Amino acid sequence: MDPNAVKLRGFTLALVLGIASSAILPDNLAVVATPKGNGAWLYVETQQQIDLWKQQITNYNTLAGPQRAIRVLYVYSMDFDITYQSPVIGKLTEIAAKSFRSIPYVTHVGAIIDGILSGSANLNSLTSAKVKAFADSYARVYCNSSALDGIQLDLEPYSATYKNSTLTFVRRLSQNLRDNSTCAKPKFLAFFVGPRQADADLYDALGPNGYAVISGYDLDSPKAGYPETPKTYQTNLLTNVKVVLTSAATSKYGKFSIGLPFAASACEFQTGISTTNPAKTIPGYPMYDANNLTNSYIPNAFAVLNQTLGAGYEKVGNPFLGVSVWAWVSRDVVVSGYRHVPKLPFDTSGMMSYMAKTMPCKNTV
Ligand SMILES: *[C@@H]1O[C@H](CO)[C@@H](O)[C@H](O)[C@H]1NC(C)=O
Ligand SMILES: *[C@@H]1O[C@H](CO)[C@@H](O)[C@H](O)[C@H]1NC(C)=O
Ligand SMILES: *[C@@H]1O[C@H](CO)[C@@H](O)[C@H](O)[C@H]1NC(C)=O
Ligand SMILES: *[C@@H]1O[C@H](CO)[C@@H](O)[C@H](O)[C@H]1NC(C)=O
Ligand SMILES: *[C@@H]1O[C@H](CO)[C@@H](O)[C@H](O)[C@H]1NC(C)=O
Known about the structure:
Layout: H1 3-21, H2 27-30, E1 38-42, H3 47-64, E2 70-79, H4 91-100, E3 108-116, H5 128-143, E4 150-156, H6 160-177, E5 188-193, H7 200-206, E6 210-215, H8 230-248, E7 256-261, E8 271-274, E9 281-283, H9 297-308, E10 320-328, E11 333-335, E12 338-341, H10 351-358
Parallel strand pairs: 1-2, 1-10, 2-3, 3-4, 4-5, 5-6, 6-7, 7-10
Antiparallel strand pairs: 8-9, 8-12, 11-12
Helix pairs in contact: 1-5, 3-4, 3-10, 5-6, 6-7, 8-9
Bound molecules: 2-acetamido-2-deoxy-beta-D-glucopyranose (NAG) (5 copies).
């Protein structure tokens, strides 16, 4: 028996005892935990970033108003590691979450849990009883935090190899988050995933209090280290959003948010700057350019949403919950020795006022 098994025995016991008093909420009560509205990722590493980024989102929300505001904030919490005896939320995560809750129109703050399934988060190496025990321990810790309304998992790759064990974890964690013996108030479970990977099994495991956060960036790259053109980006996004709509409709749950590159990603960027010689650059394309909308990424992405979700792309609701803003990040996105800019969403001139007028809307306008 490996050392993990000894550590986990306690969790397994709690799991067995837990079943008797479990009260999983019916779908109509659990569904209220799912946030509706635009979201954003924030990978906070310092108090200074908490203050600065809070100010930026406050400025945006004040300008945008309640309908187009960024309502859901995902704050980095921890990396999933199967050797941990018990998860730790992170002190800065809770400080940030508490602080961000007072931003106007923010309704939900969730914790980001990252994990590499092919590495330290390899759920395949555990028995299914242990996978469930892990889900129980995560649920206990995150339900206990009054600063957090849910969890966004980024467990990669969600591929055939890891699917079964990942779904066992997701199903169990989501159930726990809507079980009133674990969570006094239900919390949401979001799962970050590629557009072609989000399948009915995933939506079903996420359940009524869950949804997929679909990557609407890094869909394709012309050549390692080089930018996708906005036109090809638009073509690829269109094909992929159609796939998402079709597969989401095969689950009775099937809700999703779409992440878009408001700041540089690996394949969508304005400039790549050599990390060893800043004079060496790879030119890309603007995330937004008021004078050349069709040659910039975000206007093209909004055009795709308009085309696929209808003029009603402006109306946030089922199955579309809004866009997720990539991203407020501490670290640079670096590909092949080049760091990508713009680093933050509002580093692009005019982006804030453009978003305030065109982001998907909570009600039709
Ligand atoms: C629950 O939260 C309280 C107060 O923040 C803390 O003291 C306690 O250790 C937490 N319990 C668990 C199981 O995380
Ligand atoms: C998939 O996971 C379940 C536990 O949820 C387990 O009972 C089953 O044996 C697994 N199937 C495969 C093919 O590994
Ligand atoms: C949990 O839900 C069950 C069924 O809806 C209900 O009977 C019970 O009172 C609830 N418990 C708490 C602590 O809210
Ligand atoms: C817009 O960008 C494209 C591609 O770079 C360029 O060919 C075109 O001249 C630009 N249009 C304007 C009005 O700047
Ligand atoms: C959405 O599409 C309609 C036509 O279907 C068009 O009139 C409208 O301007 C478009 N809105 C945006 C923001 O692209």
